[in-house]
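Input (structure):
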């Protein structure tokens, strides 16, 4: 959850109150730039160009993104909003604690839809309501949505690496054949890798982030997570396909999922559908 929710997805500003200050009030109006939605659906596969860096990353010696102090504040603020929605917090510090809260968000919902709706509320709480209204009313309509989509792509790449890892802006091809530099390529999504769960990716990040941007910011978004290498392609300005043909919702459980390993051991003769993630 770019994400987010994305920021899920998942888009935040580069400055915000520390965790304890944010957690003390559910009405905090500190505005993120953007975070972690469903319109007409394309029927053909979208093609993205190879990533072209448009936003500076901060890779460490290992090639992984190294969070800054500002990133720690963003994580704390996002986590405080997750805690408010879930009504529970983990004793673990940092990102590990955030993943505990995300897992609790998953099990709290009585259905996948209920979990998605809760994640959308988390994303909404990161913004002052007036900011979302103005963005949707004033910016989203400009140039058939091109300006708003490109702005969100750059904001995501600049402000959400603490959640997702190293990412960069790239070009995407729209259903009408036009090409906009409104894509974001995440090299290896930390949220997906740390959660070890396809269901958490789908229900607390991909679907709620798509819904949030469409319904509350007026911008279509189609997210394409790759469950083999944990990369993810954000396509701002592109409507997602219907749920029944979205290939991400038909993927089997991740190999790193401990529950999936157990199910595979118990159901060696089962069909692929029977071994799919029960959370999706």
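Output (sequence):
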């Amino acid at each position: 959850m770019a994400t987010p929710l994305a920021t899920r997805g998942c888009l935040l500003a580069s400055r915000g109150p520390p965790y304890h200050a944010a957690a003390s009030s559910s009405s905090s109006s500190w505005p993120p730039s953007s975070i972690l939605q469903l319109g007409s659906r394309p029927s053909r596969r979208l093609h993205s160009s190879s990533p072209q860096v448009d936003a500076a990353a901060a890779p460490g010696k290992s090639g992984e993104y190294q969070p800054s102090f500002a990133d720690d504040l963003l994580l704390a603020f996002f986590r405080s909003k997750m805690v408010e929605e879930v009504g529970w917090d983990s004793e673990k510090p940092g990102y590990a604690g955030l993943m505990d809260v995300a897992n609790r968000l998953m099990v709290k919902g009585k259905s996948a839809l209920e979990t998605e709706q809760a994640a959308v509320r988390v994303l909404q709480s990161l913004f002052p309501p007036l900011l979302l209204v103005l963005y949707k009313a004033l910016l989203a309509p400009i140039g058939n949505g091109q300006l708003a989509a490109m702005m969100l792509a750059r904001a995501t790449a600049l402000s959400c690496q603490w959640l997702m890892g190293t990412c960069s802006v790239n070009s995407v091809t729209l259903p009408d054949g036009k090409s906009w530099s409104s894509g974001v390529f995440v090299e290896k999504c930390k949220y997906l890798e740390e959660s070890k769960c396809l269901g958490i990716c789908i229900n607390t990040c991909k679907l709620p982030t798509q819904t949030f941007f469409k319904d509350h910011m007026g911008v279509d978004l189609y997210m394409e997570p790759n469950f083999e290498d944990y990369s993810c392609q954000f396509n701002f300005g592109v409507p997602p396909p219907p749920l029944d043909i979205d290939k991400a919702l038909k993927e089997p459980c991740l190999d790193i999922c401990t529950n999936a390993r157990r199910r595979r051991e118990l159901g060696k003769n089962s069909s692929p559908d029977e071994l799919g993630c029960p959370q999706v």
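Notes: The first strand starts at residue 167 and ends at 173. The beta strands are 167-173, 179-186, 221-225, 232-236.
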